[in-house]
Structure formats: structure tokens, C-alpha cells
Write a structure and sequence with these properties.
Length: about 500
């Protein structure tokens, strides 16, 4: 036998001998515990989309809304409207990062149904590495991107109110009122509608419950996780991009404001026509473009659902503009540019809560209804009631927002082309379509509308009277006649 074979035989015998002496060496090593799945990291495409969307929504306020409103007032008040909108945008930004984000999107302890806490005041604990949940399991975006996006919402919402009492409110009173309103009305509404833990937290709680041996403890933990959400979110209210939080909220505050301040001097007697429909067209067009960030951006991800929200924002707006135009043409004999622009805004408002839930054909129907309904409200109902909502904030944002919020409960129906109600707990880790009953969902939507009207209406009235009793709301008669450009700001929009 060759030396090599003898060596191999000897080594084999030695190995067998060792195993016989120490049996543990013959056992297969125990596998290591499965490593925890890595934490999700933001996708660059989603992050880029959210940064672009934030810039688009800012454009809605300045210059979009500022020019839209500015063109609708008289020349002597153009600059005052521009100043009011720009100032509100800046005030809202500072309030948001100091304590607003924390009040809207953190746990509020015993008051959590209605308001958050101060755990993230001054953006404590937020840095470039922290993330925020989206609507898909395992998908996140940088928390700074989410903060910026939501900041643009709080910028435009109070600015919408300006149109209701344009041409007659003191700038100092406006500043004080807006600080109070943003803090005491907007932040709680945002918390009630949009605050929740996110899909992964819901899924983890459902998994623990399914595999728990102590069902009672697991059920308590599960209930606590699902209960860590805003009042209207827990009720199941659907608001994709702000029908309640933004439009109804601002519209009711505007209506209350115009009633408390009273009518403009000469209302119903003098011609109070828009001074530049060219400016209004530019503003409305910027609003439509920016609204793609508003609606499609609210998906928080660059995917098919964002594309659905975008196409709905196209077609509902076009349908509403045509609807207002045609109804006005039939009833008044001539189609107007202002009517078509107003209809477009009505369509944008109406589709906002339904943008990611409805199908395109349902969105067209919603737009057609909103355009006609808002025209009737602005041209007939307002005149019959005799209140001076200067730029038809309630007629467009209030009526359009209510129609859209309630209509969302119908158009989300998969049988009508909708996407259905999202369900994150039945199959943990998967986004599935949950149970849907149209009547129940419409009732929930109507309750959300009712809560918004009461919260904004009562809260805004208290704040208006508080400001009126302290520094006064309305400019003096001679200042109103002269125009707020000179009276409040000492400059004019135009110098010829």
C-alpha cells in the first residue's frame, strides 16, 4: 500500500476515535438565530418626489393663491392681499417647526384623540437619518421630507381664509388671529384626521396577536397600537389630501369671519368687480399645477397610487370648470372666464379628499357635480342670504369640500372604480382591501364633515371675538375707502 493511502487511512481512524471519545463533536452545529430584517431605508425616487411635491404646494400659496386672490379684489387692495398671504405663509412655517409638527403628529397622552404632545417640539430628535412612515409596508421617507410636505399644508390653509373677509380686516388683527387659529384649530384638526402609527406598526401588532400565547395581553397591546391615532382616523374617515383639514376647515373659518366683520362698504350697491382677471388666471393656473403636488404628493410615494391621484386631479378639475361654464352659460346667457376659473378651483377642492381613493370616471362625475353646485351657491344662495364672502371662499372651498368629503365614501367603492378601504391588519405586512359598506362609510364621512364644521366654526368665532375685543378686527371706514394698500402698508401695488 502506498504511503499516501496509509496516511489517509490513519487520519480517518483518528477522526473516528475522537468522535467516539467526545460524541458532542459528531453533532451538527446549531443554526444561529435568524437575523432581524434590516430597517427600511428611504427610496431616492420617493424622496425626490416628496421634495418636488413640497415645492409645488408652496407654489400654490406664493405666488398662486396670492395672485388668484389679488386679481379678484380692487386695485387699491391688491398689495394688501399679497402681503397677507405671504405673511401667513411665513408665520405658519415658523409655528410648524417650533411646535406644530409635534402637536399634529405625536402622541398626546390623555388628549391623544384631539391633539398631540410636545415630544418633538423644536424638531427634537429629528435628523437626516430619522424616517416617517408612508402607506406601504416597509416603505419610509426621510422625516425632514415629511415635515416639509406637511408644512406647506399649514401654509396654505389659513391663507385661504383671507378671501372671505378681503378688503376690510386690519393687518395686525390678521396676524394675531392667524397665530391663534393655526395653533388652536388647524393643528388639532390635522391630528384628528391624519395621525396614526403607520402600516408597519399596525402589521407588527397584528402578527404578535396572531402568534401570542397570552392572548389577553397581546390583544391589549394590539388595541393600544390601533388606538394611537386621531379621533377621526380611528372612526375610519377617509381624507386623502385635506378635504376636511384644509378646505372645509378654512371655508368655515372664512364664513364665520365675514359674518362677524360685516359687509364691505358699498356691498350690494357699488361695483366691487375684480381689478385683474389676468392675474386671477395666472394664479388659478399655478394653483392647478401646484395641486398635483398637493394631491399626488399626499400618497407619500412615487408609485401607481400617486399616478391615480394625479390623473384624478386632471379630470375632476377639467370637468368642474366645464360644468360651471355650461351652467352659467345656460342661466346667464354668457360664459365667463371667472366662472371657468372658479369651477376649476371647485373641482380641485372636491377631488382633494378622494384623489387617491376614486377612479378617474368617478372623479369626472364628482367634478361635474361640484362645478354646478358651487356655481349655484356663489351666484344664487349667497345673494339670497346676503352675506359678503368677498371671494367666495365658503361657496367654493366649503361646498366643494363637503361634496368631496362625502363623495369619497361613495367613490372609494371598487364597484365604481375606486380602490377600496385599505386594510393593514387582516394580512399583516400586506396592504389589502378591507370590508366596505357604502352607507356606513358615507355616514362616517358625514360625521367627519360635521366635526370639522363645529370645530372650525366654534373655535374660529371665539378667536375672532377675542381679537376684536382686544385690538379690533376691522379697519376704520376712511381707511377702507382709501384702500388697505396705503392704510395698512403705505405702498401701492401699482404706481402709474
Amino acid at each position: 500500500m502506498k504511503l499516501r493511502n496509509l496516511a489517509a487511512l490513519g487520519l480517518g481512524a483518528a477522526a473516528i476515535g475522537l468522535l467516539l471519545v467526545e460524541p458532542s463533536l459528531a453533532q451538527t452545529p446549531a443554526p444561529e438565530a435568524a437575523a432581524a430584517p434590516p430597517a427600511p431605508v428611504p427610496n431616492k425616487g420617493d424622496t425626490a418626489w416628496m421634495l418636488v411635491s413640497s415645492a409645488l404646494v408652496l407654489m400654490m400659496s406664493v405666488p398662486g393663491l396670492a395672485l388668484f386672490y389679488g386679481g379678484l379684489v380692487r386695485t387699491k387692495n391688491m398689495l394688501s392681499v399679497l402681503t397677507q398671504v405671504f405673511a401667513i405663509v411665513c408665520i405658519a412655517a415658523i409655528l410648524w417647526v417650533t411646535y406644530g409638527y409635534s402637536l399634529a403628529f405625536t402622541n398626546g397622552g390623555g388628549f391623544n384623540d384631539f391633539i398631540g404632545g410636545f415630544s418633538k417640539a423644536f424638531l427634537k430628535g429629528v435628523d437626516p437619518t430619522t424616517v416617517a412612515a408612508t402607506f406601504s409596508n416597509g416603505v419610509v421617507i426621510p422625516e425632514y421630507a415629511y415635515i416639509c410636505f406637511q408644512m406647506t399644508f399649514v401654509m396654505i390653509t389659513p391663507a385661504l381664509i383671507v378671501g372671505a373677509f378681503a378688503e376690510r380686516m386690519k393687518f395686525s388683527a390678521l396676524v394675531v388671529f392667524m397665530i391663534l387659529w393655526i395653533t388652536l384649530v388647524y393643528f388639532p384638526m390635522a391630528h384628528m384626521v391624519w395621525y396614526w402609527g403607520g402600516p408597519d406598526i399596525f402589521a407588527d401588532a397584528a402578527r404578535k396577536l396572531a402568534g401570542a400565547t397570552d392572548k389577553a395581553a397581546a390583544q391589549a397591546e394590539y388595541d393600544a397600537v390601533l388606538g394611537d391615532a386621531g379621533f377621526l382616523f380611528k372612526k375610519g374617515a377617509l381624507d386623502f389630501a385635506g378635504g376636511t383639514v384644509v378646505h372645509i376647515n378654512a371655508a368655515v373659518a372664512g364664513l364665520v369671519g365675514c359674518l362677524i366683520l360685516g359687509k364691505r362698504i358699498g356691498y350690494g350697491r357699488d361695483l366691487l368687480a375684480p381689478h385683474s382677471l389676468t392675474m386671477t388666471l395666472i394664479g388659478a393656473s399655478l394653483l392647478w399645477v401646484g395641486w398635483f403636488g398637493f394631491n399626488a404628493g399626499s400618497n407619500l410615494e412615487a408609485n401607481g397610487s400617486a399616478a391615480l391621484a394625479m390623473i384624478n386631479t386632471f379630470v375632476a378639475t377639467a370637468a368642474a370648470a366645464l360644468s360651471w361654464l355650461l351652467v352659467e352659460w345656460l342661466l346667464k346667457g354668457k360664459p365667463s372666464l371667472l366662472g371657468m376659473l372658479s369651477g376649476a378651483i371647485a373641482g380641485l377642492v372636491a377631488i382633494t379628499p378622494a384623489a387617491g381613493f376614486a377612479g378617474p370616471m368617478g372623479s369626472i362625475v364628482l367634478g361635474l357635480i361640484a362645478g354646478a353646485a358651487c356655481f349655484i351657491m356663489c351666484s344664487t344662495v349667497k345673494n339670497a342670504l346676503g352675506y359678503d364672502d368677498s371671494l367666495d371662499v365658503f361657496g367654493v372651498h366649503g361646498v366643494g369640500g363637503i361634496l368631496g368629503a362625502i363623495g369619497t365614501g361613495i367613490l372609494v367603492d371598487p364597484a365604481l372604480g375606486g380602490v377600496g378601504i385599505p386594510d393593514y391588519t387582516t394580512k399583516p405586512g400586506e396592504l389589502t382591501v378591507g370590508a366596505y359598506d357604502m352607507m356606513s362609510q358615507v355616514i362616517i364621512q358625514a360625521e367627519a364633515v360635521g366635526v370639522t364644521i363645529l370645530w372650525s366654526g366654534i373655535g374660529s368665532a371665539i378667536l375672532y371675538y377675542l381679537v376684536d375685543f382686544t385690538i379690533g378686527l376691522r379697519v376704520k371706514e376712511e381707511e377702507e375707502r382709501e384702500g388697505l394698500d396705503i392704510a395698512d402698508h403705505g405702498e401701492r401695488a401699482y404706481n402709474y
